[in-house]
Amino acid sequence: MSTGTRVFLVGFMGCGKTTTGQALARRLGWAFVDLDTQVEQVFGLSVRDIFAQHGEAAFREEEARQLVETTRLERVVVATGGGTFVPEANRVLVQRSGISVFLDVPWGEILRRLPNKWEERPLFRSPEQALELYRLRLPFYRLADFTVRPLFGEDAEALAGRIALLLRGLLCAT
Ligand SMILES: Nc1ncnc2c1ncn2[C@@H]1O[C@H](COP(=O)(O)OP(=O)(O)OP(=O)(O)O)[C@@H](O)[C@H]1O
Ligand SMILES: O=C(O)C1=C[C@@H](O)[C@@H](O)[C@H](O)C1
Ligand SMILES: [Mg+2]
Questions:
Q1: Can you tell me the distance from the alpha carbon of 55 to that of 52, in angstroms, rounded to the nearest whole number?
Q2: Which of the residues 35, 64, 125, 159 has the least number of beta carbons within 10 Å of its own beta carbon?
Q3: Per UniProt, where does Mg(2+) bind (predicted)?
Q4: Pocket of ligand 2 (CB under 6 A)
């Protein structure tokens, strides 16, 4: 399987996977897929309502299924969900199918970005619980092929530009 035509952005809720992913896809002239949106479309419900009505396990099952679907596409940037890269099966699939990039946003900045958004993200129950989850997840995110830490004040467009530069070098080499 060619790994040069898919990019998977991974990282914690609020690190900018969706926003940066859209900007990156535009720059590369590639398609963009947001995994959370795909799952929402299958259920016809928001992430919050999927968790509430069907439970997290049902969400994770569909998330894994939608991840497989993305590996059938070429020239695509995938914004994963915050938990997608944690199960080993998902991680192995990503590592075999494309290039993974961890958006390594420090906790303080995540907190600044996500006030009042807790009810949309069922696993962001309180800052304390979310910090615990963030710490548990970091070792998994660090298994991504590349880690990119947004610079102070660097917006999603600028960050996408930096990732595009990194990828262009890699894509030329494959
Ligand atoms: N580089 C950036 N600088 C400042 N704000 C940003 C940046 N990237 C994204 N944001 C803002 O942070 C918030 C969260 O971004 P986004 O929804 O893209 O994160 P996400 O990683 O997709 O989160 P989730 O896992 O919950 O889907 C949004 O309000 C977005 O505008
Ligand atoms: O971190 C997580 O586990 C999640 C992040 C979001 O992107 C959604 O996939 C959902 O809210 C779960
Ligand atoms: Mg997102």
A1: 6
A2: 125
A3: 18
A4: 13, 36, 47, 81-83, 121-123
